[in-house]
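pipeline/complex-builder :: batch 7 item 3
reading input block
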Amino acid sequence: MSYDNKSASNRDLTDTFFDFLAWVARALVWLGLGAFLVGLGFMMFYVFGPNLTDPGKIQQATNNILILSKVLDAGVLGLSVGLGYLYFGEETLGPLILVGSAALYFAPLALPSVAGTQSSAGTAALGAIQSAGVLGGVVGIIIVLLSVIVAVRERATLGAKKDTLKLGKDVKAEKTQNVLLGSCWQLPFCRKFVRDRCPIYHSKRTCWRELVGCMCEEEIIMNAMQNKPVAKNDLVAASAMIPRNHKLTDAQKRTRCKSCVIYNEHLRHKYRVTVPAIIGTYILLYLLLRSPLSTEFTGLITSTGRLIGSFTMTGSGHKVAAPPVWLPEILTAVIFVLALSYTLKIVEYLYFNLKI
Ligand code: SF4
Ligand code: SF4
């Protein structure tokens, strides 16, 4: 089998595999939706249904709720994992799953007042809805985290090329140096032939600061091709030889840089340095603020419960149980993860959309 045939058949196999995964994900979404509706429907029945007093019936209802809670959990899991696979990378997916999960989690605070008298079966059903909310929340956080990790990896490797910039087919950047945060002549797109005759290089300047370079000013290329002499070992004389284009404004020249491979490579370097710095800062902040924030969240959850209780007419004196110890801790971690994710998205926007 020739190399071309072999790689085509490998591609076919890969496509078939991913088609199969997409099919599984769609099946998960539909099965998950079904299980979710069945589970939630029955839980609602136990919340809003008759107030059971017969111990035998209460026992039977409790057993049913135990089984149905697994159906509900499976539904939430199938739905969120399936949607997570199918719409991975969509900005709104993670937050939507988190909001839906929060609605399930806080259901026990809102529903009892609507349902009126609460039976023990109803209370167990509300507990099951709340657990399903925690499960959905965990999947939502994992999706947000994964999408940020993938985006960071792609940006650190490809920079703006991820969106638009491409070298022509089969055209490769010359194998040269690539110094982190280096000047234009330390990046892979500086060609030796031009560099040797380039006043930017010999004056040790950087083209995007001078707003003139080999990708935008034909004079630099022409001089190189005509082998025009350039001042070497004399920074001042070399900088005086940098050609100046007075037909364009500085703003127009800056716009020109934004679509240039050289400047975009420089932005990619900035991104690669900024991301670890931001992650480090967040880790430090988390270590410093974890404990006080957890305490704040304990109070916040209790007052939210009280507020929902009073809005839903449970009564102003309604007593709200303190949240489990792990909840404020998890909430603090979640807030940090989300803040970190969105900070990274902002950085990505600044570097690769606004290109500053
Ligand atoms: S302007 Fe171009 S050729 Fe000159 S130093 Fe910069 S990258 Fe190299
Ligand atoms: S357009 Fe490119 S070559 Fe020209 S100054 Fe900007 S970054 Fe340098």
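note: The chain has two domains: 3-162+272-352, 184-249.
queue -> next item
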